[in-house]
């Protein structure tokens, strides 16, 4: 008995783990499993008990590992298979979870989501002789975006075991103001509106456990006033003639995600054609789950974005934490000019060419059963360039007056808010 009490063997491991399992002593079950690993003792029921203990302690990464090992002992175990699928989904490894579904699995909707948002621009008239359009206008003019409101409706559904489709319908209403100044006199505001209707469709195909390909198309229809409008200097008003245009943006990404302990490194290569320009992106990053579940996570990534031979690095950091039983908070920022940057595989398009130096956000989400409510506050720090054309003295009598163009950066901020509702099917 003394020798038995000082060493671990298969009988003791089995007896002790079963007793702790029956008593609901989940931490003790994990401790016994750790001792069994040191002694190189492994069997089906130990993995089954350890997986259940890890699940109850919300160590979903370990639970997935234990149930996967249990299936290696008994591949027909439907309980372990269902628990493995559930844990893979909870750790964001849905592509791996799909590998355990049968080919006869009924196609189903994953979720449906609606968002309503508004962005306000804290931008003011910079100077009377600024010419934002770059034309030879010595009096000065510029266009300021006042508010942007949008409505977004999206859904995702399963077509086959490896293929998912995402659909997003978006309507934007952008209020702008053409501002014109005559010399040093106060500027004259001339408001107008741009309306944009968007349809985004993305396919997500799992090539294997780690790799998937995501082609997407973004169809846009824009109804707006022309960028160069005629100005009546007598009445001091602009005249806008309505124009309509439609165009298509295309994106295709190749993505690899894998899991190492509590880390999920990922690599994303993207080729795209946004706003009549071609871009390539290479993203390297990782998601860290410090406690082995999705209650807390940190996503860090860097993206090399190249367009027209010009390259830049765009950094992004997101931190999320479960605060209460049904309440989750998330915050993060992106640093860099994200004009034509493929965020979320082209779901978000930043068609205003002004440099975005920093984009930040903070989100609160409340979940109950299959429903999730969210509210988000956003912040954008932007920079646009204004141009001033000034006549210089003639180099000699009788020669025309030369023009000198001076560009000046101008910083401004945007604040916004988004309210969302999401419903998950078969959660």
Kindly state the number of beta strands: 16
The number of helices is 7
Q: Which overall shape is indicated by the principal axes computed on the Cα atoms?
A: elongated
Q: What's the main sheet like? A: 14 strands, antiparallel, barrel
Query: What is the typical, i.e. mean, pLDDT?
Result: 80
Instruction: Report the C-alpha radius of gyration, rounded.
Output: 29 Å
Task: Give the helices and strands as they follow along the chain.
Answer: HHHHHHHEEEEEEEEEEEEEEEE
Percentage of helical residues? 10-25%
Spatial strand arrangement across the major sheet: 1-2-3-4-5-8-9-10-11-12-13-14-15-16
Multimeric state of these chains?
single chain
Structural class of the secondary elements? alpha+beta
Distance between the termini: 49 Å
Strand proportion: over 45%
In the predicted model, the low-confidence regions spanning at least 5 consecutive residues are: 1-6, 128-139
């Amino acid at each position: 008995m003394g020798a038995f009490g000082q060493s671990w063997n298969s009988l003791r491991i089995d007896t002790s783990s079963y007793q702790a399992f029956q008593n609901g002593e989940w931490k003790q079950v994990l401790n016994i499993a750790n001792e069994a690993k040191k002694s190189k003792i492994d069997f089906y029921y130990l993995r089954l008990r350890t997986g259940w203990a890890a699940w109850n302690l919300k160590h979903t990464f370990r639970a997935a590992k234990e149930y996967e090992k249990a299936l290696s002992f008994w591949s027909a175990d439907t309980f372990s298979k269902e628990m493995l699928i559930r844990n893979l989904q909870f750790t964001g490894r849905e592509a791996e979870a799909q590998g355990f579904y049968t080919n006869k699995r009924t196609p189903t909707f994953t979720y449906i989501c609606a968002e309503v948002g508004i962005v306000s621009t804290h931008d003011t008239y910079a100077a009377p002789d600024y010419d934002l359009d770059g034309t030879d206008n010595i009096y000065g003019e510029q266009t300021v975006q006042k508010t942007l409101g949008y409505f977004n409706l999206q859904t995702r559904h399963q077509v086959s075991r490896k293929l998912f489709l995402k659909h997003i319908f978006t309507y934007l209403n952008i209020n702008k103001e053409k501002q014109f100044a005559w010399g040093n006199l106060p500027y004259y505001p001339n408001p107008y509106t741009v309306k944009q209707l968007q349809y985004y469709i993305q396919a997500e195909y799992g090539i294997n456990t780690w790799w998937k390909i995501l082609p997407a198309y973004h169809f846009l229809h824009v109804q707006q006033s022309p960028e160069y409008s005629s100005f009546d200097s007598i009445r001091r008003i602009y005249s806008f003639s309505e124009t309509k245009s439609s165009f298509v943006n295309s994106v295709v990404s190749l993505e690899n995600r894998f899991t190492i302990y509590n880390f999920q490194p990922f690599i994303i290569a993207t080729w795209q054609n946004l706003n009549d320009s071609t871009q390539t992106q290479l993203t390297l990053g990782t998601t860290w789950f410090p406690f082995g579940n999705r209650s807390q996570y940190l996503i860090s990534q860097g993206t090399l974005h190249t367009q027209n031979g010009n390259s830049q690095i765009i950094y992004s950091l997101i931190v999320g934490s479960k605060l209460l039983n049904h309440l989750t908070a998330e915050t993060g920022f992106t640093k860099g000019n994200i004009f034509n940057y493929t965020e979320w595989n082209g779901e978000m398009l930043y068609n205003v060419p002004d440099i975005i130096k920093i984009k930040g956000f903070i989100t609160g989400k409340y979940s109950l059963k299959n429903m999730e409510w969210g509210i988000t506050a956003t912040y954008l720090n932007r920079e646009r360039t204004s141009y001033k054309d000034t006549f210089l003295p003639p180099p000699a009598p009788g020669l025309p007056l030369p023009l000198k163009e001076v560009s000046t950066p101008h910083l401004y901020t945007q604040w916004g808010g988004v309210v969302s509702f999401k419903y998950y099917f078969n959660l």
